[in-house]
Predict the structure.
Amino acid sequence: MEWETVIGLEIHAQLATKSKIFSGSSTAYGAEPNTQASLVDLGMPGVLPVLNKEAVHMAVKFGLAIDAHLAPRSVFARKNYFYPDLPKGYQISQYELPIVGIGHMDIELEDGSIKRIGVTRAHLEEDAGKSLHEDFQGQTGIDLNRAGTPLLEIVSEPDMRNAKEAVAYMKKLHALVRYLGVCDGNMQEGSFRCDANVSVRRPGQPFGTRAEIKNLNSFRFIERAINHEVERQIDIIESGGTVVQETRLYDPDRNETRSMRSKEDANDYRYFPDPDLLPVEITPEFIASVRATLPELPEAKKQRFITQYSLSTYDADMLTQSRDVADYFEAVAQGCGDAKLAANWVNGDLSAALNRTGIEIANAPVAADAFAGLLKRILDNTISGKIAKEVFDAMWNGEGDADSVIDKKGLKQITDTGAIEAMIDEIIAANPKQTEEYRAGKDKLFGFFVGAAMKASKGKANPEQVNAILKQKLAG
Amino acid sequence: MAISEAEVRKVAHLARLAMTEDSVEAYTRNLSNILDLVAQMEAVDTDGVVPMAHPLDMTQRLREDVVTETNHREAYQAVAPETEDGLYLVPKVIE
């Protein structure tokens, strides 16, 4: 019998503000423990939260990007639970009236078709601190630097039907928040975290009981964790058991999920409006001012690259994965005047060099204008594409710009017809046997002569000229 | 009774409030009285009334995104029962 998987995702995106959501503490990552925890973050008596304007701005920006309904009036609520890394005994979140209402994201499936995934809501909330359970005998260490960091929790509809769709949605969202500049997307540092609600059912039947898998912090893990969880649930049901609603933690080392705690009823959090905070009003003027800061979004950019630069869908897709790559490409394309060549090189040698060295494109040792300078030398026949790879490597290693590398290493292409002719005459004279065979009809030997000419010129002879002159001379 | 003793015990536990055994009955009675009053208020027709999120009829003021706090860890940790390497120490909690 067939099973259908149902997946909904809750994604926590840490907003890229300088200060916390309700206090003036820094949100910088990696500081000494508790040096960025103020009285507000520590939940001391008598303090009051004051909402960060930028966090509201970013939430609205995100809402506009997913075509969502924006609440003209949204309310902060207290989510009550006890845990030592939550000093106040409640998390300030939003419950009934979130700032971002229903929206949607379109994902591309493997067969190329488009599927729309509903976004139920996105709300502002504060992050908790960190508990360190190791290192202290019988005790837990608490670091509250992260407490009060602004989060946007983005909740999807249960619209995904397999792990691949979940990954596609998460990747799309990841690219979007980075495009918008509202989240740095750093998954290692926990800036972008995902919880997955997974259940199985017979097609056409009501939803099955779901399990929530916590803290999936890589695209690879989320796919494996969901697939594992689906198998676990099917095994339980097929052997006559029932799935319990609970929170499970994914263990990447063992590739399994294990029970963490029974998910308490939502009511047990006893949400109520936070009396310390007034309702947040979003005016049409505010929305208009945010809309004016919206950058071109990935999908629109991709379509523009296809029409404006005549790129293939594949190239355009690769180049719009991140805003930095897209900006770099555009600068190179405009700098050298040949978009297709720019796309090939950015997706090819540059991308390979970045992957090899683990460097981000924004810090690439060859900047976009220098890169355009290199491609110009291919276009004006100063060097061949093959020699350009050598020049690129030298530029990457800091040996100067394209022109000085070409000059220093003497890589300028030989285009002097007389010189190429003289060289080819020598090659033909030195290889009488091959020449005779070629003339007798062994066409394959043409490659041998091209190779000999390129070798003799150390790769610098213009390949088109070599071909043309060889053809003519060998014809006898 | 609008609320049972079991519910009172559960709410007290969720709020981490200690209740002596002989006070449970009194709390249940008093809370029930309050809830009975709420039940009377529920008879009022509130269609079209926006639920009140705050008694003040104002909207939230926003602050600029500027770091204004400096590190006062030593002063704050002076009142903590136990600290180590800059961390607050609490009895071990693990799920």
Chain A has 15 helices and 16 strands. Chain A touches chain B through 53 residues (CB under 8 Å). Residues 4-288 of chain A form one domain.
